C-alpha cells in the first residue's frame, strides 16, 4: 500500500469535509481517494470516517490518527522538496586558477549536457585539496604525479622573446664571469606548479647546476611572474597553451622534464566516475591537456637529444 498517498487522501478529505472536494484537493479522482482511504482503514484496523452521513465526518479513531497522518504528509512533502532542490542545486567543483573563463564556460556547458550544474571554485593545488577534505566542494581537480594522472600537461618555458631553440636547459641560466651575482635570468614557478613532483626536481637541478637560490623560485602569482618575464626577460614555467594566452613564446624545458598531472576526485568513487566520463574532453581543454595523449615523460628524461648551442 502507498501509505503516504493514502494519508494524503485521508488528510484532504478530512480538511474538505467530503470525498469529492478532498480528491480534487489531492489532485486524484474521487474513486481513487475512496479506495486509498479504505485501504488505510484496513491497514490501521479502524474506521476513519462515519459513512452514515452525507459529509465525511471523522470517527473518534480518525480524530486520533489524523495528527500523525498530517506529520507524515508534511515530511513526505519536505522530502520531495529537498530532493528537487538537490537535483537542481549546483555541484561545487574546485578547479585550477589557470583555467580560462571561456574554457570553464565550455566545461559548464558539458556539465549541463550531462545533467549536472557546476559551480566552479578556482584555487591553487593546496586550496583545492583542503576544500575537498573539508567538504566545501563535492569534487575537485587535484594535482597528482603524472604517472598516476588522468590528464597530463607537459611544461616548458614562456619568454618575452623567441628562445631560438626547441628545448631550453637550466644550465643556460648560469651567471657568467662578467655578470654580478644575482643578475642572471630567473625561472619562475607559478602557484599551480608549487607541488612536489614539479617544484622539487627543478630546485634540485638548480642546486646541482650551481644557480643562485633566486634563479628558480616560486612566484606569488602568475601575474607577478609574467610581469618579470616582460620587464626583466625572465622565464615562466608553463604549458604551451598558457604561454599563448599570455602572449609569450614557448619552448620545451630539458633536465629535468616536468609535467602537471591531474585527476578528478569526488566524495565517492561513483560520483567521481559519473563526472569524469562526460566531462573528460572539456576538462582536458581547460587544463591544456590532451585526453588521448601518452603520459608525460618521466622527470629526468630528455625529449630533445640536441642541446642548446
TrEMBL record:
Highest taxon, organism lineage: Bacteria
Gene Ontology MF terms: DNA-binding transcription factor activity; transcription cis-regulatory region binding
InterPro entries attached to this UniProt entry: LysR_HTH_N, WH-like_DNA-bd_sf, WH_DNA-bd_sf
Pfam families: HTH_1 (PF00126)
Domain HTH lysR-type stretches: 1-59
Alphabetic keyword roster: DNA-binding, Transcription, Transcription regulation
Family listed: Belongs to the LysR transcriptional regulatory family.
The protein's name: Regulatory helix-turn-helix protein, lysR family
Amino acid at each position: 500500500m502507498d501509505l503516504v498517498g493514502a494519508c494524503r487522501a485521508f488528510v484532504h478529505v478530512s480538511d474538505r469535509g467530503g470525498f469529492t472536494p478532498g480528491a480534487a484537493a489531492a489532485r486524484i479522482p474521487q474513486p481513487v481517494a475512496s479506495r486509498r482511504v479504505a485501504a488505510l482503514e484496513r491497514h490501521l484496523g479502524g474506521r476513519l470516517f462515519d459513512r452514515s452521513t452525507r459529509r465525511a465526518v471523522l470517527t473518534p479513531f480518525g480524530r486520533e490518527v489524523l495528527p500523525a497522518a498530517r506529520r507524515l504528509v508534511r515530511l513526505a512533502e519536505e522530502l520531495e522538496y529537498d530532493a528537487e532542490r538537490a537535483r537542481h542545486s549546483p555541484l561545487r567543483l574546485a578547479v585550477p586558477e589557470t583555467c580560462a573563463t571561456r574554457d570553464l564556460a565550455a566545461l559548464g556547458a558539458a556539465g549541463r549536457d550531462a545533467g549536472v550544474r557546476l559551480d566552479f571554485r578556482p584555487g591553487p593545488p593546496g586550496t583545492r585539496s583542503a576544500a575537498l577534505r573539508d567538504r566545501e566542494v563535492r569534487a575537485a581537480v587535484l594535482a597528482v604525479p603524472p604517472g598516476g594522472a588522468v590528464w597530463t600537461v607537459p611544461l616548458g618555458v614562456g619568454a618575452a622573446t623567441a628562445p631560438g631553440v626547441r628545448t631550453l636547459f637550466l644550465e643556460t641560466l648560469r651567471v657568467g664571469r662578467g655578470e654580478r651575482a644575482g643578475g642572471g635570468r630567473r625561472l619562475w614557478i607559478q602557484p599551480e606548479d608549487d607541488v612536489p613532483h614539479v617544484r622539487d626536481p627543478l630546485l634540485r637541478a638548480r642546486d646541482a647546476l650551481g644557480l643562485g637560490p633566486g634563479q628558480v623560485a616560486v612566484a606569488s602569482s602568475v601575474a607577478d611572474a609574467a610581469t618579470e618575464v616582460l620587464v626583466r626577460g625572465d622565464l615562466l614555467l608553463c604549458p604551451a597553451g598558457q604561454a599563448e594566452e599570455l602572449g609569450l613564446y614557448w619552448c620545451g624545458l630539458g633536465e629535468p622534464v616536468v609535467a602537471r598531472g591531474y585527476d578528478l576526485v569526488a566524495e565517492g568513487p561513483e560520483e567521481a566516475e559519473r563526472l569524469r566520463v562526460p566531462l573528460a574532453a572539456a576538462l582536458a581543454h581547460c587544463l591544456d591537456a590532451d585526453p588521448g595523449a601518452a603520459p608525460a615523460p618521466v622527470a629526468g628524461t630528455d625529449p630533445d637529444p640536441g642541446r642548446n648551442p
